[in-house]
């Protein structure tokens, strides 16, 4: 005989059977718990306004746009208040004092809706319901609409616009549910011969809440996008600055390593070059050579960190002012008329300043080729009272994108790299447009540790 299947042989089927035959009381308790959570959330949303006190359109840049909600609210109150009193007295035969009180409670809170629309809704919603109850015994000649009068419908729709522009979607859903519930509850007391308008108000309020909340969501998304773009731009600028500093550090490694190597060689060869050197001096030179070698090893480790992105170092020697002539010739071949003026005395420029001056000229010429092709350019490099002045001036250029060969190429970091190099050497940089439409780059780099005050920049032609 075949044994009967057990529950352990079919665990999935047993679980599905248990779920299908779940006791009704358990399902009912779960449903009631979810319903209670839903209404608790709606209650919290209806009693917790979003950014209370902040007027509608307060973030607009134009003052007139910020004043627009107040103007609209005053216009609605000024027109609806007397209209509501007139309709209640003439059409619904309500006592004048009671009509004034109801009309004030239904319309004046629209002014509060500019800054606190949710609180204004509580006041107006309560006033509308109480006003409808006051019309139960009305026997006016034109009491045709129930439970809302035409001014109530208009004012309530205006209030829905303010709510949709400010409150959360859960709060708007709660407002819409409360509006429908109140309308259908009052429908049970509708007098004979009147026309119900609660469905019309329910549809209009739902549409207005949906549209205005969509407009608000779109505005919030655009604002967050702008904020994110600002953050991204700041992050890109910071990353560009760090990349340029790392590149400058890699270039200066060769300069510093050369000096450290010279110190090591001099310290090692001192006992052989200097006769009758005392033992204490020999030990000092040996210590100097050892420290220099350790410094070189640390610099190599630093360079490996700066090149951790896998980039390869340049094999060629670092350029200097002796190669500026080649830069100018490449710029001329790219279609930019350029001339160079090199003063005497630049042969003894310190290596760091020599490299920085070359890179500044390179970046300036690359910017001319990129942004002002065809503009006449003048490059001037001269030492003056302990300072090296680098000046690159170009006039108005032809239209961008003329298709010239870009012979002068920079690092792609432009003014950022110039500023970092000038800051590194303790100099100053002056850049800006010229009155005739050109551009000027003037850098002053110190040739000594304590130079004389920087001279005035050369006047632009």
Automatic annotation (TrEMBL):
GO molecular function, one term: ATP binding
Region (Disordered): 1-27
TM helices/strands, residue ranges: 67-88, 94-113, 120-136, 148-165, 172-189, 195-215
Any one GO CC term of the record: membrane
UniProt entry keywords in alphabetical sequence: ATP-binding, Kinase, Membrane, Nucleotide-binding, Phosphoprotein, Transferase, Transmembrane, Transmembrane helix, Two-component regulatory system
Domain Histidine kinase/HSP90-like ATPase per the UniProt entry, residue ranges: 356-448
EC numbers, comma separated: 2.7.13.3
Record keyword Hydrolase present: no
Domain Signal transduction histidine kinase subgroup 3 dimerisation and phosphoacceptor as annotated: residue spans: 244-309
Catalysed reaction, written as an equation: ATP + protein L-histidine = ADP + protein N-phospho-L-histidine
Pfam families recorded: HATPase_c (PF02518), HisKA_3 (PF07730)
Record flagged with keyword Transmembrane helix: yes
Name of the protein this chain belongs to: histidine kinase
């Amino acid at each position: 005989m075949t044994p009967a299947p057990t529950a352990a042989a079919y665990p999935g089927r047993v679980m599905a059977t248990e779920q299908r035959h779940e006791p009704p009381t358990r399902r009912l308790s779960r449903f009631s718990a979810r319903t209670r959570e839903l209404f608790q959330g709606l209650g919290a949303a209806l009693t917790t306004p979003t950014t209370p006190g902040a007027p509608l359109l307060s973030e607009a840049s134009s003052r007139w746009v910020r004043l627009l909600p107040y103007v609209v609210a005053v216009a609605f109150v000024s027109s609806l208040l007397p209209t509501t009193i007139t309709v209640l007295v003439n059409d619904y035969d309500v006592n004048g004092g009671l009509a004034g009180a109801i009309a004030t409670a239904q319309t004046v809170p629209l002014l509060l809706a500019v800054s606190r629309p949710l609180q204004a809704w509580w006041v107006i919603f309560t006033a509308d319901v109480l006003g409808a109850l006051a019309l139960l015994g009305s026997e006016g000649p034109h009491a045709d609409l129930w439970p809302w009068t035409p001014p109530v419908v208009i004012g309530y729709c205006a209030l829905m616009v303010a709510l949709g522009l400010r409150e959360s979607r859960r709060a708007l859903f709660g407002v819409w549910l409360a509006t429908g519930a109140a309308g259908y509850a009052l429908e049970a007391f509708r007098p004979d011969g009147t026309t119900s308008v609660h469905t019309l108000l329910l549809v209009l309020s739902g549409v207005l809440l949906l549209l205005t909340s969509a407009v608000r969501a779109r505005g919030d998304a655009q604002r967050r996008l702008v904020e994110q773009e600002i953050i991204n731009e700041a992050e890109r600028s910071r990353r560009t600055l760090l990349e340029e500093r790392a590149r400058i550090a890699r270039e200066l490694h060769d300069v510093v390593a050369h000096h450290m190597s010279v110190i090591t060689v001099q310290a090692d060869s001192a006992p052989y070059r200097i006769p009758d050197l005392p033992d204490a001096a020999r030990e000092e030179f040996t210590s100097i050579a050892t420290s220099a070698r350790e410094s070189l090893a640390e610099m190599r480790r630093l360079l490996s960190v700066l090149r951790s992105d896998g980039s390869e170092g340049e094999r060629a020697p670092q350029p200097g002012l002796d190669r500026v002539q080649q830069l100018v010739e490449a710029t001329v071949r790219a279609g930019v008329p350029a001339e160079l003026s090199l003063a005497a005395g630049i042969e003894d420029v310190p290596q760091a300043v020599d490299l920085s001056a070359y890179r500044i000229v390179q970046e300036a010429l690359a910017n001319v080729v990129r942004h002002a092709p065809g503009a006449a350019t003048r490059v001037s490099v001269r030492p003056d009272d302990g300072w090296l002045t680098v000046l690159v001036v170009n006039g108005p250029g032809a239209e961008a994108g003329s298709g010239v060969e870009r012979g002068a190429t920079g690092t792609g970091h432009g003014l950022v790299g110039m500023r970092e190099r000038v800051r590194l050497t303790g100099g100053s940089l002056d850049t800006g447009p010229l009155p005739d439409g050109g551009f000027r780059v003037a850098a002053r780099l110190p040739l000594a540790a304590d130079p004389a005050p920087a001279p005035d920049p050369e006047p632009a032609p």
